[in-house]
Write a structure and sequence with these properties.
Helix content is 38%, strand content 15%. It is built from ten helices and seven strands. 35% of the residues are buried. Residues 7-78 form the Insertion element IS402-like domain.
Length: 284
């Protein structure tokens, strides 16, 4: 019987070859599925690693496995596999994507990470001061159905529009044939992304921007879209729902990790959990 927060047999079959490749030498490692279930438990419960139930094994072993998978790209590979499955099953919309950002309040324990950082670790650890206090922003792109496609992190005080291009550039949707999908037909965003530069970026890459203006009554300047697609913009609630689903995981609703790489890995695990539940719900 599968416990709460734990991966189903069907879900494990989809990703087993990535998470638990055959071991040819060395000491036998602890069960990878049990380790992954322990990570899901921490993600969803928001508890400390030391409070991990004994059924998942020593907490330090589960945490070490989390760091290993964080550093070697296992979580990203698993998410890519699940996105491919959604695409092959026809559950992913490749025409209409949307982008937005949400702020995550960080605890005092999240501050004070190593000042040197690593080759991929920002010196500020994606932490900043905003009206909400110490916060991190998650910049996310999802499709019309709310499946997460790519995300980036930034300090909480930075403007959403500054991370529009960098977040879109992270999209790399694999397909069974042909090149990975990187662009959509429509890109939907709220007035926080109201910028001529961002609209021109969409035009250069063959995307139609559906971006609300800060002043919807102002006169449109030459060279800019003259009609606003209200029905298409109305689909933007999908990304709000996506944020809601992700923040049901308490480790995402509040940031506890000191390192940006660890919090990024947690967000990736939350996206994995979302995609696993999506595949399962459409089969039942």
């Amino acid at each position: 019987m599968v416990g709460r927060y734990e991966i189903s047999d069907d879900g494990w079959a989809q990703i087993e070859d990535i998470v638990s490749p055959p071991q040819t030498m060395g000491r036998p490692r602890r069960d990878d599925r049990k380790m992954l279930n322990g990570i899901f438990w921490v993600l969803c419960s928001g508890a400390k690693w030391r409070d991990l139930p004994e059924r998942y094994g020593p907490w330090s072993t589960v945490y070490d496995r989390f760091r290993k998978w964080r550093d070697d790209g296992t979580f990203e590979a698993v998410l890519s596999r699940l996105q491919l499955k959604l695409r092959e099953d026809g559950l992913m919309d490749l025409d209409t994507w949307m982008i937005d950002a949400t702020s995550v309040r960080a605890t005092r324990a999240a501050a004070g990470g190593g000042k040197k950082g690593g080759s991929k670790e920002p010196l500020d650890h994606a932490l900043g001061r905003s009206r909400g206090g110490l916060t991190t922003k998650i910049h996310l792109v999802c499709d019309r159905y709310g499946w997460p496609l790519a995300f980036t992190l930034s300090p909480g005080q930075e403007a959403d529009s500054r991370h529009f291009v960098s977040t879109l550039e992270r999209i790399h949707l694999p397909g069974s044939v042909g090149r990975p999908r990187k662009r959509s037909r429509y890109m939907v965003a709220d007035k926080g992304y109201d910028s001529d530069e961002l609209r021109h970026y969409c035009d250069r890459h063959g995307m139609k921007p559906v971006i609300a203006r800060r002043n919807m009554h102002r006169r449109t300047r030459p060279g800019l879209p003259r009609r606003f697609d209200k029905p298409k913009y109305g689909q933007r609630n999908a990304i709000e729902r996506c944020f809601g689903w992700l923040k049901e995981c308490r480790r995402i609703a509040t940031r506890y990790e000191k390192l940006a790489s660890s919090f990024k890995a947690m967000v990736c695990v939350a996206c994995i959990d979302r995609c696993l539940r999506a595949n399962f719900s459409h089969k039942t």
